[in-house]
Amino acid sequence: AAFGDAATMTYWSGPPLATVAETRAQLAAWAAHPESPQWTIFDAGGAALGRVTLVRTAPDVADAGIILTPAARGKGVALAALNAALAYGFGTLSLTRVSADIDPDNAASIRLFERAGFRLERRLTAAWTTHIGVRDSLIFALRR
User: Fold this and answer.
1) If you average pLDDT over residues 121-127, what whole number do you get?
2) Residue 95 contacts residue 54 (beta carbons within 8 Å)
3) Taking 80 as the threshold, does the pLDDT of residue 19 lie above it?
4) How far apart are CA 31 and CA 33, in angstroms?
5) Which of 61, 41, 64, 37 has the alpha carbon at shortest distance from 51?
6) In the chain, which end has fewer C-beta atoms inside a 10 angstrom radius, N or C?
7) Which of 76, 98, 102 shows the shortest CA–CA distance to 87?
8) pLDDT digits (tens, 9 = 90+) for 58-104
9) Of the candidates 135, 82, 71, 136, which has an alpha carbon nearest to the alpha carbon of residue 109?
10) Which stretches within 1-142 are classed as H helix?
């Protein structure tokens, strides 16, 4: 429901995934990197709502990422999941810094990461070529 939704995938590096099989393959590829933990976000009934991850870029540094189904938005789920991932990262993994690479037009993600304590560090111009064109990146970060 998240990876196949065009609106949800607007600011990702690629277009929506067309099938459940493609989604499973992508999740398996990400899971093949145990140094970069990822968690599925479930509701109380066990339905998958999204995913949160910490992608290690150095021994004590990671990039955070999160995606939610449209139905899960606006309920505090994203902030709770991000905060749990950050607690694990700064605690168990002993990270010193977590960053987030956000498209400047992705206002919801900017608000989420700012609510979690991240601060804007810089803007990278023409940082990505995606399915929606050449995009800038805003780099947000949080230090332990």
Assistant:
1) 95
2) yes
3) yes
4) 5
5) 41
6) C
7) 98
8) 999 999 999 998 888 888 999 999 999 999 999 999 999 999 999 99
9) 82
10) 20-31, 77-90, 107-115
Per-residue confidence band for 2, with pLDDT thresholds at 50, 70 and 90: confident
Cβ-based neighbour number of residue 7 at 10 Å: 8
Per the CB < 8 A criterion, the answer to whether 6 and 70 are in contact is: no
Strands 133-143 and 97-102: antiparallel
CA–CA gap between residue 104 and residue 87 (Å, rounded): 26
Backbone angles phi, psi at 25, to 5 degrees: -65, -40
Residue located via tokens 């949160």: 52
Which is nearest to 144 in space by CA: 117, 113, 108?
A: 117
Q: In this structure, are residues 30 and 93 in contact, taking their beta carbons and an 8 Å threshold?
A: no
pLDDT beyond 80 at 11: no
CA distance 88 to 73: 23
